Amino acid sequence: MNNHTSVPVGVLGASGYVGQELLRLLARHPGASVAFATAASAAGELLDGQRLIKIDDAPLATAEIVLSCLPHGVSARYVHETRAAGRRAVDLSADFRLSAEAVYGLTEVARPRVATAELVANPGCYPTAALLALIPLAQRALIDTSREVVIDAASGVTGAGRNPKRELLFGEVAEDFRAYAVGNEHRHLPELRATLAREAGFTGDLVFTPHLLPVKRGILETIHVPLTRVLDQATAEGLYQAAYAGEPCVLITAGALPSLQDVVYRNRVAIGVAPVHNVRRPRLTVIAAIDNLVKGAAGQAIQNMNLMLGFEETTGLVC
Amino acid sequence: MNNHTSVPVGVLGASGYVGQELLRLLARHPGASVAFATAASAAGELLDGQRLIKIDDAPLATAEIVLSCLPHGVSARYVHETRAAGRRAVDLSADFRLSAEAVYGLTEVARPRVATAELVANPGCYPTAALLALIPLAQRALIDTSREVVIDAASGVTGAGRNPKRELLFGEVAEDFRAYAVGNEHRHLPELRATLAREAGFTGDLVFTPHLLPVKRGILETIHVPLTRVLDQATAEGLYQAAYAGEPCVLITAGALPSLQDVVYRNRVAIGVAPVHNVRRPRLTVIAAIDNLVKGAAGQAIQNMNLMLGFEETTGLVC
Amino acid sequence: MNNHTSVPVGVLGASGYVGQELLRLLARHPGASVAFATAASAAGELLDGQRLIKIDDAPLATAEIVLSCLPHGVSARYVHETRAAGRRAVDLSADFRLSAEAVYGLTEVARPRVATAELVANPGCYPTAALLALIPLAQRALIDTSREVVIDAASGVTGAGRNPKRELLFGEVAEDFRAYAVGNEHRHLPELRATLAREAGFTGDLVFTPHLLPVKRGILETIHVPLTRVLDQATAEGLYQAAYAGEPCVLITAGALPSLQDVVYRNRVAIGVAPVHNVRRPRLTVIAAIDNLVKGAAGQAIQNMNLMLGFEETTGLVC
Amino acid sequence: MNNHTSVPVGVLGASGYVGQELLRLLARHPGASVAFATAASAAGELLDGQRLIKIDDAPLATAEIVLSCLPHGVSARYVHETRAAGRRAVDLSADFRLSAEAVYGLTEVARPRVATAELVANPGCYPTAALLALIPLAQRALIDTSREVVIDAASGVTGAGRNPKRELLFGEVAEDFRAYAVGNEHRHLPELRATLAREAGFTGDLVFTPHLLPVKRGILETIHVPLTRVLDQATAEGLYQAAYAGEPCVLITAGALPSLQDVVYRNRVAIGVAPVHNVRRPRLTVIAAIDNLVKGAAGQAIQNMNLMLGFEETTGLVC
Asked: What CATH number is associated with residue C282?
């Protein structure tokens, strides 16, 4: 890596799990270098060869692009400062995901808009998997909106952040499994609904139930889709193959269903389908898996950054 | 424990996870003692103080009751031999669960029939949790059968047995999570449907999707129920409290939702509910948790055995 | 359980992992009942059927005996108040382990003294396993004190307590393994040395290195003992069998070595031995395993309490 | 990657954990491409884009170099066939590690010999970490050979291979921890002793005790070294820093001790030291960590292959 010709990238909030992953990925990116990386209590520490600084010392304008992993509610301020300094940004918080200020960066769906965006709102981890699984069906009007789409999602613990909380201790999480935000209470639901409406005209009902898995990373979503007509295995797979033909970061697991093993440490969504037997009306079960820290966060941010900077889309990523 | 006044119990297939759990529980049962315990390749070994013998050496008639943990397809033969020897039996395999020969031993639902049964078919692990969660709603005709009930179930690895298979190795299961038998292909579905029809008159559609969790024991089921009318939190909880009033092995987690922690190593089902917001039609999400080896297998078998022998129902069990 | 004839027991500090385990064990104890249980931030919550109260509201004198799981440094004050109220106490903190005020409650070694003690200092988890493994060799002068005894110990995460700390998060501990307090820096070392000197006259050098295991509970210690003379497998096993003949809570795993599986959820130490080949001078490797929450803390406290109250020693315990 | 100018590499035994890791690493190697990859029962399957073939169909001569992950005892035959076909080989089995036919490929120690070797015996996983930790001390005659060096090593489960065995099931390994081959019975000991003698003239006694950790990958070794003279922290660290100055795949963790987190998915050994206090004679505890599948197997094989083929040593690797 030739640093003097590489693009300087600023990272805000580098000491959480997503920020760490971003530094890890940037360290391997042949065309980018970290201009600065900020942290709060960890300022002063060395992380992946990078000395962390306080955010208010961050020389925002020295970066060509700033990637923010700051917490929701905090990120917007520094993203606005970045923009005021004339720099582009990818915001990994939820602050701009429902805002017209930013392009919603679900790469496979918004590629041309991302490439020219000044500000990209990187999608939430759960929505990334659900949207890539549902959009092809919704765009073809195959979802029966008289019945609800039920999404059961399970995430590894890094999705809950790195701040110490009792319920995230190893002694609590290991050998346990729990649902949370049950009853459509999760903050990712509005993002999911808004994007399905905007990108696919889908306004049907969703029931979204996240669960906490005793694994470090990975999200698996089991998506129960009522259909307007029967889709057999081959047709359903063919539909996804066609929808994502040529996509480097989408794997359709024909004849099999994905699990976390297929996606961890990769910037990939893996999608598999199974028609449902022994029911009166047509249904398809779709399984979608991602690494919450990669395609669900830092990896997709790099994917978007690559588009914005004119790099080949998967530069520095393993898909 | 005074062995010379205790009831002799025979255990068939004691070296698998369920058989081990049965021996562990029987060792603490104040009124029962193990007359014999059989194993195939592990015959001759000592397990929880018990010397395992070959099944064809088992003196069936020396037991007052025989508990069979033999594999499906094998168990029926030895249960029939037990019955021919004039002894009562609890069969933990699937061999009699759909048969008129046996009483289906979901204890809370079939208590009087179990007490007098000569042969009890112990329910499957997944059906135990799902049935105890669904029967109160189904009996009250609260389930809207124009929409499907969706059950996403996740089980610890001991539910898959103790025979060495590559997909059950630690190196494969740890940090992974996968769905299996997707599309209503699991053999527990007919048991579930038949019991719901028989006990609650429910004939609506179910979508049942099991998942393999990287934990040793425990099942959590997230059950999505379309309702015929709105149930708020208090009403739904009240309904379950009433349905299971006085039940020693059912915990309704009011104002909270159960997780595996609440049930492992206990002969208990824990049930919690959450009404679903942001959908057009009424729905309830029910979370049910059990220990697959205890209430889902060995514990419920002891619970049934206690009834059959006239012991207090929870003797030797922690609920 | 007949509460009006049962002995009232007070529990101080019931919301940590040890306190929880104590309540769990007391709930199953046929001769004891919980008079009160205290907690700090969790006061007001219900735990295993027990409403937690603030410590300064604890009616110490209503208990016949008080078991304290308070933190080191805090416990002494309330134990002294308990004593001032005329009540006996078992202190599970480190506050009295090196003090002449208390009997050091390594049950198997100090049984008669424990029975009549007013105040018992319950041993640390690591010392419990190490002492029970080393005392039989040290008492027989079999340890070559010209060479160091090396103890590598690995503990499950509950040994580090339930206060939220980043380094104990699931995201940090899972798939990791680390040594800590390396270089003889662990606070259990003085307890270990003092007890070996007092109970066995051993004053040789020890090197004690604890490790953090990605499991919830259990301690395994691999103890490397330089010997004054060769001990073959049978002789070494026989020596331990003799030393612990009749002990209900000690298992010598002849012809095998113990692992955590043999001890979790049990009030047992399991000890196995292997002579070391391919070295010039005689050595024995001793493996000792306990459940850090049971024989390493709450279980041994109950064992001691049973002796103090005149119950059969293993009442309410599974050994 | 430009396949027509890349070096064709053959992989024997690609379906085990090491073989899989090798394919994963080769897929990212910019100068090498997989000419063929063999498997036994998995022949015909697709792995990381590679169709597995039966070993007897492998066109050995089409590869420039062959990497063998075949089992011990089987590998030698095919390595000999490879050599007979005029091709170079890296053997990852134990078959040549004690043989004069091969260069023992501990890269940092044998770099020039590896570069020109026709056949490299890739070191065992445990010896890799232990040797890199001990050689600097042994070469400087700092180890007191009148006392034994005690090595307690703990490995993730992938180190035990991918063949289904009951003791490697998730249900057995999770929440467990065990020692094995206790008493200096492990087959890596002769390799360790022979290499220490050859490379550092060390002929003192070793006590090596491996343990099975409930993690997927990673080895941590806690190495207890009796010293001929006192080494304080700074001196000991300085010694290692000097010994490995400029080494891209060795990390000396000054002022800290390594854990598995520091090394997994990396071709790195991390080494930290701590002088031992409270003992009469000088001792140093050395902690060494590697990823058993990377620096302990497939990664070091690539590192050696790079040297043999004239690539920059870390090409395709993350150190």
From this structure: 3.30.360.10
D7 and D109 within one domain: yes
How far apart are alpha carbons B124 and B97 in whole angstroms? 8
Q: Do B151 and B215 share a domain, yes or no?
A: yes
Reported pTM: 0.97
Return the biggest CA–CA distance within chain C. Answer: 64
| B224 close contact with A: CB closer than 8 A | yes
Task: Supply the range of the domain harboring residue C229.
Answer: 125-292
Span D64-74, average pLDDT:
97
Q: Is B319 a catalytic residue?
A: no
Measured between alpha carbons, how far is A245 from A231 in angstroms, rounded to an integer?
19
Chain C residue at shortest CA distance from B48: C262
Q: Which residue has the higher pLDDT, B276 or D3?
A: B276
DSSP secondary structure string, B71-122? Answer: PTTTHHHHHHHHHHTT-EEEE-SSTTTT-TTSEE--HHHHHHHHHH-SEEEP
| Model confidence at D48: pLDDT above 90 | no
Q: Is B257 on the interface with A (CB under 8 A)?
A: yes
Any domain includes B68: yes
For chain D, positions 270-289, list CB contacts with chain C under 8 A: 274-281, 283, 285, 287
Give chain C's mean pLDDT: 96
As for the ipTM of the complex, it is 0.96
Sequence-separated (6 or more) residues with CB below 8 Å from residue D241: D252, D254
* Residue A287: other Cβ atoms inside 10 A: 25
Q: Which residues of D touch B260 (CB under 8 A)?
A: none
Do C260 and C135 share a domain, yes or no? yes
Name residue B214's amino acid.
Answer: P
Q: How many domains, in total, are found in chain A? A: 2
| Partners of C86 in beta bridges | none
- Residue C200 in any domain: the answer is yes
Contacts across the B-D interface (CB distance below 8 Å): 62
Are D60 and D82 spatial neighbours (Cβ–Cβ below 8 Å)?
yes
Average pLDDT over residues D113-136: 98
Contact A261 B172 (CB under 8 A): yes
CA distance C311 to chain B (A): 16
Residue of A nearest to D266 (CA): A24
Instruction: Assess whether C99 and C234 both reside in one domain.
Output: no
Residue of B nearest to D167 (CA): B164
> Is the same domain home to A207 and A268?
yes
Residue type, D169: L
- C181 and C149: one domain? yes
CB contacts of D318 in chain A (<8 Å) are 28
CATH number for the domain spanning A69: value is: 3.40.50.720
pLDDT tens-digit profile, chain B (319 residues):
344 579 999 999 999 999 999 999 999 999 999 999 999 999 999 988 899 999 999 999 999 999 999 999 999 999 999 999 999 999 999 999 999 999 999 999 999 999 999 999 999 999 999 999 999 999 999 999 999 999 999 999 999 999 999 999 999 999 999 999 999 999 999 999 999 999 999 999 999 999 999 999 999 999 999 999 999 999 999 999 999 999 999 999 998 999 999 999 999 999 999 999 999 999 999 999 999 999 999 999 999 999 999 999 999 999 9
Nearest neighbour of B214 by CB, restricted to A147, A178, A215: A215
What is the DSSP secondary structure assignment for residue D206, as one 8-state letter?
E
